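Sample 1 of the test manifest.
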Amino acid sequence: MADLTTKIGNLTCKNPVWTASGTFGYGPEYEDFIDISRLGAIVVKGITGKERQGNPYPRMAETPSGMLNAVGLQNKGIDYFVNSIYPEISTYNTHIIVNVNGSTIEEYCEVAEKCDNLEKIEAIELNISCPNVKQGGMIFGTHCPSAIAVTKAVRNVFSKTLIVKLSPNVTNIVEFALAVESCGADSVSLINTLLGMAIDAETRRPALSTVTGGLSGPAIKPVALRMVWQVAKAVKIPVIGMGGIMNATDAIEFFLAGASAIQVGTANFIHPAVTMEILEGINAYLDRNHFKRIDEIIGSLKNFTETDNYV
Amino acid sequence: MKKRIEDLTVIENKSLNSEFFVLKLQAENQLPKIFPGQFVEARVDRCPSTFLRRPLSVYDTDDKKNLLFLLIKIAGEGSKQLSHLKKNEKLNLVYPLGNSFSKPSGKRVLLVGGGTGVAPMLLLGKYLKVELNILPEFLLGYRSARLIIENEKFEALGKVNITTEDGSKGHKGLVIDHPAMQENYDMIYTCGPEVMMKAVARIALKNKTSCEVSLENLMGCGIGACLCCVVDTVDKGNVNTCTEGPVFNIKRLKWQT
């Protein structure tokens, strides 16, 4: 069995298979299906300063090879997490990463600062890419000066590993990755959902209460792979890849593109034990190809350039 | 009850009429105890146009033979694909999911089902009769006589009132037009189209009768992770239909009544 150890900032994970925020609850939702301690890390559902009710129903639409969601960061706020959820999940023998959100820089900092005081939280994922909230979220992730401002501010109040989750809804994602790297981010994770829309032709109304929502699932995988590859070539910090990973082969493709770890998201909805199959599949792939360490395949496509395709 | 991911074997796929079919499924091992109102999330294989699992009410169970019955309406691509399942093929389920109907405070109970909403009423009627020794009274609404679902199964459990919109069988009209709705009950249970459940809830509230509804909100995961199937409640705001429901007392819901 190959060595799957993965290092992201100061975080050393037993393997590179993580769960993506918003698709895995806080962990207990999946305890019946898998042994949580076998995961490299779990990224919990996005947390804000104050409780949020999220957007009205309907919040979801099925699409070919994917789904749109418009949950809108429904959560009970950081204090509830600290007092009622953290004590239960801090017993997991895996890394717990908090997905940090806010409408303002102050709110992001409040959540990050409170996480800094939690012993078991060794990393946060700064979510500047949620497409489903009117204020904050993606506004920070699609306007480079804002991305810089929020990353700098959070870096000042959070001493442990800082991951910034990037939005794909920009013209040049590399620019954002380089910007947050220069502000002290230890890693970038990408991609969040792609802004999309669905219409019910029979009722002649939008399928989502918010009209637009975030597209996830295999439909976005090629876009995610391309962006991970572009960013991994440009930055020095480790990249965490996600977007439509349904099986071990998908995960391997992200490693080859340059991801040091991957997050499994929407696939958890269809197959609640999919992360274990992906983990076993990665092991089998490395053994079959005689690799001793996962590091040996990470970024092996970085030497290709876009023009190579046309030579 | 611990939730499982399991392949069940199709023993029979029985077409009832142009819209409904029943899947009789065999579990390899001991079937978990399934309470009335609980549901399964079925994976739809070989269907490129669908992506998510389909939440389906449990229609009936046979604990001794480890059989599970699903009543399914052909509504879209996913259910159409499920209707093509053949004997000995497998169906992958995540189950049992959700809460269940609560015990009534007295012996006079009315079970109101509309269309596919009759599915959980059969298991509930069986539970009331066999486990609680309560004779259930059913009020089942259909568009037309040709769409009536296995009436003999309901009649074996208690009195069955039928309404059809075209008057081809039973009382002509909607379930709320039936005289049974005006009688006194200790509890009314209902499942069906939202407009029907809201109308039933209005009557129950007016008559000060306790009433539980089983919601059919769109679901992403069925296990409380995606937060897509929420319903707005009086006490806790948006809650997951899949884990806090699908059964709710109408007093918890912010329905316009």
